[in-house]
């Protein structure tokens, strides 16, 4: 659900990236006989790749840190079925007063976000 709530943010990022693409590149591809699908696949997608990677990283880190929606909608669900790692950290630190253990869980969440973003960036190939 958190991905859907951020769709407007991602749309603005893509809109800004589309406005940043030079029109003469698109016109040159059209003059060379490029139709709509090959134009997107061979011209626009490589130029939009940095924004795609940015949105994937934002989406990944937002999903890992998901807290508010599951707390507001289900409160952890029946028997903790929808409890995320962030909710577990919150419960550990503030409900059970184990702040040291909660801090370690927060550090693990941070490391998951950093390493996950690094893996996503590793698969990002530079545009020629």
Using only CA atoms, what is the Rg?
A: 20 Å
Q: Give the H and E element order.
A: HHHHHHH
What is the average of the pLDDT values? 90
- Percentage beta strand: under 5%
Secondary-structure class: mainly alpha
- Assembly form of the protein: single chain
Which descriptor suits the 3D outline?
elongated
Q: How many individual β-strands?
A: 0
CATH topology: MetI-like fold
Count of all domains: 1
**Biggest sheet record:** none
CATH superfamily: MetI-like
**Architecture per CATH nomenclature, i.e. the level-2 architecture:** Orthogonal Bundle
- Tell me the distance between the termini: 36 Å
Family: Belongs to the binding-protein-dependent transport system permease family.
Keywords: Cell membrane, Membrane, Transmembrane, Transmembrane helix, Transport
InterPro entries: ABC_transporter_permease, MetI-like, MetI-like_sf
Subcellular location: Cell membrane
What does this protein look like?
- Belongs to the binding-protein-dependent transport system permease family.
- This is Sugar ABC transporter permease.
- The structure is a single chain.
- This protein is an all-alpha fold and 128 residues long.
- It has one domain: MetI-like (MetI-like fold), CATH 1.10.3720.
- The protein is 76% helix and 0% strand.
- The protein contains seven helices and no strands.
- The chain has helices at 2-5, 7-20, 23-31, 36-64, 68-73, 85-95, 99-122.
- The two termini are 36 Å apart.
């Amino acid at each position: 659900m958190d991905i859907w709530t951020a769709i407007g943010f991602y749309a603005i990022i893509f809109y800004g990236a589309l406005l940043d693409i030079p029109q003469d590149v698109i016109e040159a591809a059209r003059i060379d006989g490029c139709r709509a699908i090959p134009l997107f696949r061979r011209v626009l997608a490589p130029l939009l790749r940095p924004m795609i990677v940015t949105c994937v990283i934002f989406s990944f880190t937002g999903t890992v840190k998901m807290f508010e929606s599951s707390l507001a909608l289900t409160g952890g669900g029946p028997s903790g079925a929808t409890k995320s790692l962030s909710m577990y950290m919150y419960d550990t630190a503030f409900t059970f007063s184990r702040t040291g253990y909660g801090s370690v869980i927060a550090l693990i969440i941070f490391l998951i976000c950093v390493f996950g973003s690094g893996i996503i960036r590793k698969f990002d190939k530079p545009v020629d």
